[in-house]
């Protein structure tokens, strides 16, 4: 029987494109957003009034919230500049034009690299905790060479991070997953073991059972408040980069088109701040994801 958790929703940009290309629907959408943002009812949007829209665009692009990273903050600033182009404020028509361009750009990116949204609700994780595969994986983790004085708490956190999305665990690199799922699961063990004791205090059998309890608690947490995970199933293996490097004329063409699309100063030089933008423009041609999407 297929788990409800195993089914994923594919986001391929088609709905965004449909919205923008349906003039009546897009005009209604713009009207609603403009009224919502135009707090002073001036008929124009200034820098401050644009920020909620810019923040939503950032979230849609997969960026962390403002203030969490200088790199992502720079992108938020660039999106704001894209709207204003040096002006103090913009009217509804100008807002509509820039928004349409941004949304179509997002749709193009999603068409190239669709995102799969998967609901993680604890079903797969509970099934995994009861499987033979779990015991094999737990023993493998316990047997990995590590510092003898490493605490049981650290070992359990590391072990939870090793469980894949396919087995029902959302990525523990996500701060909210660590805070709301992993840490409560580990803390739940404090009534039966000393979490600060060295890992050597647990033998293999005891570790498997303690780890299972943590996984089951995490599964219960996910059942109470499921998590939606966005992931790409495209493989980035460098083959497109190698192919482009072998074809000198194609490489020069791609670099020339990228260079033409970037803003330069009066001396023809490119500001360092636009290097990231250039890499993102190159990404589709060299078979790479947008900068920062895949950690490696």
UniProtKB/TrEMBL annotation:
Keyword Manganese: no
One of the record's GO molecular function terms: calcium ion binding
Domain of life: Eukaryota
Gene3D superfamilies for the chain: EF-hand
Keyword Cytoplasm in annotation: no
Keyword line: Calcium
Boundaries of every EF-hand domain copy: 25-60
Protein name: EF-hand domain-containing protein
């Amino acid at each position: 029987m297929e788990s409800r958790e195993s089914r994923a929703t594919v986001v391929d940009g088609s709905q965004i494109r449909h919205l923008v290309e349906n003039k009546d629907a897009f005009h209604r959408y713009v009207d609603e957003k403009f009224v919502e943002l135009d707090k002073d009812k001036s008929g124009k949007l200034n820098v401050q009034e644009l920020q909620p829209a810019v923040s939503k665009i950032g979230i849609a692009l997969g960026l962390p919230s403002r203030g969490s990273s200088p790199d992502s903050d720079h992108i938020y600033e660039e999106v704001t500049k894209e709207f204003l182009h040096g002006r103090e404020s913009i009217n509804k028509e100008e807002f509509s034009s820039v928004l349409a361009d941004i949304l179509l750009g997002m749709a193009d990116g999603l068409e190239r690299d669709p995102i799969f949204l998967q609901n993680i609700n604890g079903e797969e994780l509970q099934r995994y905790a009861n499987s033979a595969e779990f015991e094999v994986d737990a023993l493998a983790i316990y047997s990995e060479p590590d510092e003898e004085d490493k605490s049981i708490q650290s070992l359990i956190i590391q072990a939870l991070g090793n469980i894949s999305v396919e087995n029902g665990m959302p990525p523990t690199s996500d701060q909210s997953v660590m805070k709301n799922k992993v840490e409560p699961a580990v803390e739940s063990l404090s009534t039966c073991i000393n979490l600060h004791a060295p890992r050597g205090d647990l033998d293999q059998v005891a570790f498997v059972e303690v780890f299972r309890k943590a996984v089951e608690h995490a599964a219960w947490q996910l059942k109470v408040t499921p998590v939606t995970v966005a992931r790409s199933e495209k493989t980035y293996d460098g083959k497109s980069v190698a192919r482009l490097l072998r074809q000198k004329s194609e490489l020069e063409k791609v670099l020339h088109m990228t260079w033409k699309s970037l803003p330069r100063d009066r001396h023809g030089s490119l500001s360092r701040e636009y290097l990231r933008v250039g890499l993102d423009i190159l990404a589709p041609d060299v078979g790479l994801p947008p900068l920062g999407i895949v950690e490696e």
